[in-house]
Fold this sequence. Notes:
This protein is α/β, with parallel strands linked by helices.
Amino acid sequence: MRTRSLVAALAASSIISLTSVAFAQRTITIRAGAVLDGKGGMQRNAVIVVEGSRIAKVGNASAETVTYDFPQYTLMPGMIDAHVHVGAHFGKDGRAVTPGETPAEAALYGVQNAYAMLMAGFTTVQSIGHPTDVPLRDAIASGRLPGPRLLTAVQPLTDTSLTVEQVRAHVRKNVVDGADVIKIFASKSIREGGGQTLSDEQILAACSEAKALGKRIWVHAHAASAVRASAIAGCTTVTHGSQITDAEAELMASRDTYFEPQTGLLLQNYLENKAHYLGIGNYNEAGFKFMEEGIPLNDAVFKLSLKHKNLKMTMGTDAVAGAHGRNANEVIHRVKLLGQPAMDGIIGVTSLNADAMGIADKVGSLGPGMEADMIVVAGDPLTDITALQRVVFVMKGGKVYRNVAAGQ
Ligand SMILES: [Zn+2]
């Protein structure tokens, strides 16, 4: 009697959660007009079979009934952004600095940004980084909050006065504090000209310590000299690289260094939101002039880099306040305006990013045993890359977070 009334109460109060518990291990089938596997493969009219949180099979569509059907649309792996700042936001007064804000208020903005990115089809993002990323990462991972799988650098290294041993100690501390990746600033901001800041020895110390601890390292570097030192030091990824020449592109390619240039969202977002940033630190008129002039320079660097066929160009937007949820703009800019083949742009935001982040055995492509992270976009991104902005279905770990494909 007691049990029966409990079940009845549960069913009445929470049908959704009861359903998700009861069917946690059920089989879900998704059919799509086209399926991109994230590694360059494409299949027409395919069915993905999901068992629990993982993909069991990718195969030809049969006449059987499926759980979700998208005959006109394209299914692909959930997108990955390897460089965001998940907590960055405009405060109550619309400004990008938020004095007086409570930690609870700040935390909610991080939750909001994470949700916006998930809804935009990004099922994994790497935040580069802030200590408050850690509880957010853990809350998402435990299923308490909806959001992309979150990786974090915790506390980036910016202090140029550290000794080599102190640099190593910084890396070790971050790992203890829960860092998935290490981030160092080896050059100034582009708003200050981008010159090298850390010495070659400091860069080498950080990269070798990270490697010794089995961690990847992202190096912020604009100046060509800082990019060279980072590639030689064996860092995982150079981010920005706005002042490189063919020589540095070739060096990164030969050293297997991933290159993460930004050209389609970061500076555009600052310019669109100028009023929210102007007057804060180096966000002055001179800084904005650097950024305005930076867009064509970044475009030129991207085009130069495209010519180096062995250079692995990943996709990290450096999304700050105002940019979360618009992450796909970077891929669209690369493909639509700068001539990157659409398939390469899609690989860059899926399997290649997973490679760079050390998680390619779980996410970034579609195949048996992979986590069931996938999205459906309205249209064919191979012929119209803007389809990446029309995300109608989002699944992460076998759970559907978005399905707005009415009429399909
Ligand atoms: Zn950044």
